[in-house]
Amino acid sequence: MQIRRIRVGIDVGGTFTKAVAIEMVTGQIIGKVTVPTTHSSSNGVSTGIVEALKRLTQRYSIQNSEIELISHSTTQAVNALLEGDTANVGIIGMGVGLEKSNVIKRTNIKGVKLAPNKFLYTCYRFIDTSKYLEDKEIDQAINELKKEGAEVIVVSEAYSVDDPSNERFVMDRSDIPATAGHELTGVYGLEIRTLTAAINGGILPKTTSTAKFVESAVRNEKITAPVLIMKGDGGVTDMSTFRSKPIVTVLSGPAASVAGALLHLRVIDGVFIEVGGTSTNVCAIKDGKPEVRYVTIMQHPTCIRSLDVRVAGVAGGSLVRWSGRKITDVGPRSAHIAGLPYSCFASPEELEDGQIITFKPKEGDSIDYIAIESAGGKRFAITNTCAANALGLVPEGDYAKANQTSAKLALSILANRLGITMEQAATMILDISAKKVLDIVEHVIKEYKLKKERVVLIGGGGGASVLVPYIGFKQQLQYKIAEHAEVISSIGVAAAMIHEEAE
Known about the structure:
The protein is an alpha/beta fold. 36% of the residues lie in helices and 27% in strands. It is built from 17 helices and 25 strands. The strands form seven sheets. A six-stranded mixed β-sheet has the order 3-2-1-4-11-12. Strands 13, 14, 15, 18, 24 and 25 form a six-stranded mixed β-sheet that branches. Strand 13 and strand 14 form a beta hairpin. Helix 10 (252-264) packs across helix 17.
């Protein structure tokens, strides 16, 4: 019997980690599994990656020898930046003495704001490269930066893209993780190159530990296949690149989804909308190709190329908020982040005699998020998925299809408190959510000069049927739900071509 050639694709989302196995000769999907993303694990999201892989191989009787490739996309880099969970960075700027003031101005990066009250901490030293570089001078600069709290060294020299030898020499002297501008880009522009390297350095220790854990766990399972990771531009690269250049994986999840959608749907002009549990990603497709641009991270321009993906803080699992008298917002917190099950997936008996309560999903959040608390004290979330199911908008067999009786009961409990009908409450929730996504869609259509009459909305993600048809109906736009929408990103990861682009 011929041995199957299987590729495994794993996508780490904000809510779920999804894995698929594809037989590469026939293109057939052998199996797919979903596990909750392991944010709180001591090994972070990598625990979920390994768990998904184990379940996939065991459930579908996949032999280790049949796996030719494992590739995954990750939100770890962008999540670390969103949450301000970064290492302290020591920057060594270099240039000839005559240009010293200009080089210092462009390499002494300070106060890189990541999130509210969260900054990338940096300290700085300058080394004159008009003379021979001495080990003693380099060691002194590194030691001084370490004493100031540096956990990573960033080296940035003027014109290093033409001759990176000095940057490499300094990196080799460092006894803590080090990175440099020439490793990340061939683009001129000392300041933007330094900023890109500093952001890359800030997430280096965390991603290095993830890479080590994932690789060792895969090898412990006696799987010898290469382990690759998705890049934001739609390609994949090896784990050694992830260890040294994690910034290239920013937006790798959305890139994987677009790649998966383009495998199945021949779209000339369209907008891809991936609706997850926590956030929704939007990307333009023009002339049959996704748009690629330099990434801006927290308003900071970088030299990293990626798909032009816009993110809305609303999705299938987003929580409803109220003022006590009316629904005021939906999201950005999700049921998964709050640790609550969706009310539409509960049994009607669990919701009977339930009451609306307000709570904080996370410490520091406002207390205007709502949930249903049962007579037994169990809490259930009211989400977009609940609203869409209550209105009968989710088709049979869809990943987001839930118990319509439970969904109607949950929305009725909320509606009774507000003095409106169940249908009005569900419609308000979807209208608020759809507008957040639609504002981005309309901006993308205008920016890329897509002809509206030719535009097709392509829905992906587990919550695609919750919001995409609703948006299409509201704006009279054509729409399609991608085949295997709930694991479209994992399919894209598994089937991505391996390439590195030299600028």
